[in-house]
Each structure stands twice: as C-alpha cells, then as structure tokens.
Design a protein that fits this description.
The protein has 345 residues and is of the alpha/beta class. It is built from eleven helices and 15 strands. Helix 8 links the parallel strand 10 and strand 11. The two termini are 41 Å apart. Bound molecules: S-adenosylmethionine. The site of S-adenosylmethionine (SAM) has 24 residues, from helix 7.
Length: 345
Amino acid sequence: MTSDGRPRRLDLDRSIDDEILLRTVPGAVDYLFEELRTFSGAEVRVVARRRDALQLSYRGTLRPLAAIRYFDTAAICLYPDPDRRVRESTERGVLAALTGDSPQIQFRVGDLGEARWDIRDQFEADPHWHNSAGNWDINVVDSPGGLVGEVGELYLTERFGALLRAPASTNPVIGAVMVRLAKIEDGQTVLDPFCGAGTLLVLAGEMAKPGLLIGGDVQSSWARAARTNVHSRGLDGSLLNVDAQRLPFPNGSIDRIIANMPFGKRVGTHKHNIQMYPAALGEISRVMTPRGRAVLLTEDKRLFRETVQRTPLLRVIKEILLERGGAHPSAYVVVKRGNSRAVQR
Ligand SMILES: C[S@@+](CC[C@H](N)C(=O)[O-])C[C@H]1O[C@@H](n2cnc3c(N)ncnc32)[C@H](O)[C@@H]1O
C-alpha cells in the first residue's frame, strides 16, 4: 500500500534500465553520490552532477535506490526526446515496472505555466497517458535539463512514510545528512533539545541503532507531536517539555546531540537567540560526554560561531552548508576541546 492507502503499483523488484534524475538538497549531493558509489544491487553510472541533483544511468531493481534517504524525488528523464524516452522507459525502464490492474499510466503536469496545457494534451494524445490530478503515477515537471517525470511512489514520503510536521520542521534529507554527521554508535544516547515534531530523533532511530532517544521542546504541543511520531515508528523515546537552557540531565551523560536550532526568523528572533544560544550551548557542553559529538543546524551563523568560541570546552570541527526553501543554514559538527579522536574519524 502507498501512504494514502492506494495499492502499490511500482514493482521495486523488477530489473529496469533507465535514465533517472535524483533531486536533493544543495549540500547533500556528496552524501548521495557516496551512497551510490558503494551501492550494491544495481549498476549505477552518474551521467551528470548538479548542485541539487544527480542524473543516473540505472540498471537493476529499484529497491536499493528506494532505501536511500539523501534524495527527495526520483524522476524519469524525458529529455532530450520525450517520445523516445517514454518508449524506452515503457519497454525496459521505470514505466515497465509500473504494474497493477491497469497498465495505463496516470499522470499530472506540474506547474509549467502556460506550457502546462499543451504538455498535458501531448501526453494524452501519445503515449495515451490518462490525466488524473488526484491519483497519478507520474508528475511531469521541468528540470534544468528539460522535462522529467517524477515517480510518485519514489517520493521521500512514499518511501519512508509521512510524519506530523511542526511549522519549522527539518527537511528529512537535511536531517539524514545531520544524522550521518553525528556518527551515532550502537547503544549511544541521543538527545535533540529543540526537537519540534521529532524528525531528527525518528531519523536517528531509523538510520542508526541508538540506545536512548531523548527529545525536548519548550512547547508542550511539539513535545507531544514528537512523542506521536517517535512511537508511531515503533521507536522508544523519552519526549519532554523542557527548556534547552536548563536541561534536566547529569553532566557528561549524553553521547550525541542533534538539533535544528531556532534560526531567529520563523522560530524565535535573533535578539532572543543572543541570550538563548549561550545558555543552550553551555548546557550542550555540560551534558555531552568528553567524546561526545553534536550536530547543530542554524542560519544564525555568526552568532552561533561566536557563541561556540566563547563556550569553554566546545569547538566546531566541520561546517556543511545546506539549502532549502530560500534558507541557507549550516550544519555544524561540534565536539569537546581536546577530543582529537573526533577530528580523525
Ligand atoms: C527549527 S524547530 C525544530 C524542528 C524539528 N527538528 C522538527 O523537525 O520538527 C525549533 C524548535 O525549537 C523549539 N524551541 C525554541 N526555543 C526553545 C528552547 N529554549 N528550549 C527548547 N526548545 C525550544 C521550538 O518550539 C521549535 O519546535
């Protein structure tokens, strides 16, 4: 079943041969590339690389691709010649893997301005696809290379399920990069002191094998949403209504901290951050183990860096610029001063 209860149409175990465009978040392409390089189960060649996408020549089943968290959408490349590409994909590509009672492809056309109606008419005339705005397999949209057909069942939420979202919830691709940067070891305690709806905790629980998962949020409604999300995924977590400036945990008790901090734009203000960041980073430093590691996302970067410099014992060892929806936050990897092992690993 797909996430909205429709029967699944895409056969993930059928071997295909197609040109596929994976779209991701600028800053996550390296992680996606690395994942594909060590990929088993399919033969993958990167044909083109952009700051937010990889074009692949893909041979094999789609199941291992569907398990990768570093992309939002996977689309069939319809360029440079849509007729030819549709034919090839129908014969041996992703379109051949769309099964079910009706072999007819249901499609919609995304926001393509005035061109939208012509494109809809063309795909209806040949290859006789059925236009269906509410129940579609393929979403025809534009990309810098030309038209592509996004595969509905390979959307991130279809692959991993949807979660309750807070207004400033972390994009799950950015979250996956953050969890990767956190290098969570088996059994380690993981804390998100700004957990919102708990996206990062769910990702930590699903991408690694942590021991205790702990989330805190100053707003009780978000701590409750995080509890629902964590428990709905069958994960064990302790979700608390707490202020990150006064954490109820003993010194040196937390191995890994991951958080999307208030940027001071949609959540909080820069003025508020001026007081809150030093207090929260002081607490992070206090509760983190000597070998601990924190991955903290913020767009209030200058304040963040200055605050880390002023926080005894903490230092930044890595910064990754990630972009989404007009925001340009960085994920900072922060460790305790004197933890030279963290830099080597
Ligand atoms: C960017 S959102 C986190 C989004 C979260 N990662 C998610 O995916 O839903 C920041 C969160 O920090 C919370 N927050 C703001 N100030 C806080 C504080 N002093 N202590 C704890 N939480 C705080 C806000 O309520 C908000 O839910």
